[in-house]
Amino acid sequence: MSTQISRNTLADGREILFFHDTDSPVAPLAEDQRSAEPRPSGGQLRFDLLTGEWVAVATHRQSRTHLPVAAECPLCPSAPGRPTEIPAADYEVVVFENRFPSLGPGIGAVSADPSHNFAEVAAESALTAPAYGRCEVVVFSSEHNGSFADLDTARARTVIDAWANRTRELASCAGIEQVFVFENRGEEIGVTINHPHGQIYAYPYVTPHTKVTSARAVQHRRETGRALMADILAFERRSGERMVLESAHFSAFVPYAARWPVEVHIVPHRQVLSIDELDEAEREDLARIYSETLRRIDGLYSTPTPYIAAWHQAPVNCEDRAAEWLHLEITSPRRAENKLKFLAGSEAAMGAFVGDVSAEETAARLRNVQPRSADSMPAAEPTNEDGHR
Ligand SMILES: [Zn+2]
Fold it and tell me: Boundaries of each Galactose-1-phosphate uridyl transferase C-terminal domain copy (predicted)?
């Protein structure tokens, strides 16, 4: 049986979807009792002539909710006299359109590069587009306190099904070029609401990072006939030194050239391009290995570690489908109990990273750490120098 979905509309017209765990009863939908405030009009995209990248400008976001106490949390269930963003007395996993989106609410196409004819870009209007796209909030639980790592496997699985549903649906919208599923966790990296949640951005262009990695994957396949990530997986599994966890369908490892003090990539063994292509067995397996990785990252220090968990999915209209490979990158700037890595001149201005710890050291710490929870998976066996277990 698969996750069930109920759809509703909030008072101001935003879409909301309820994803139900397979074994729990589906509650009837309630109406949003709030008066309909007008939605902020969309922001702007401005084209940076120097880098060839679009920059979203969303000035209305300055007034958004900032670190509310639990009694004022917009992601908690609604209670009599206290309507929240979610018109339900309880829920499992909920996705709704962000009230203060960087992209949207309009969806449409924008030019990949409006500067190709420079004679025509003298006008600002040629370098400006509506900030088309969609920003969604994914609420992992009705519990205000906790995090993804605290979800049981069934609930983690429901979140994965929600990600898959949103990826497929948003990728099918005209003009959407990339769907980015992610979670920011921790006030240290700018989280404005502590209630466990993630986000989804559907962009009308391919992001700068994905342009680079996608071009490399295409070139690698042209030269070798193989998918680049297949070769990276083989390289990491053969070495074993940086491996953290291995399951039937996924490997979790610290990449050879890790940039961050804590960095783990989780890669499916089978080539899929996006979360919605993962099959039943892979989603079950992912629910376990992802949660376990987060519990190990949280076990490194006495307090929860801030992180960004970023799903790298293939662009919607990618050049070579056989070159692309879905994966998750979890990164944290935390380099000691009370120290964060800040991006200074070399990283921030040049994009040239200087790492503080070796990938092998980080992997060993994550293999040996006591995960912050009882039901944990065994770590991958470190290999000796001959590559034997
Ligand atoms: Zn809350």
Answer: 221-370
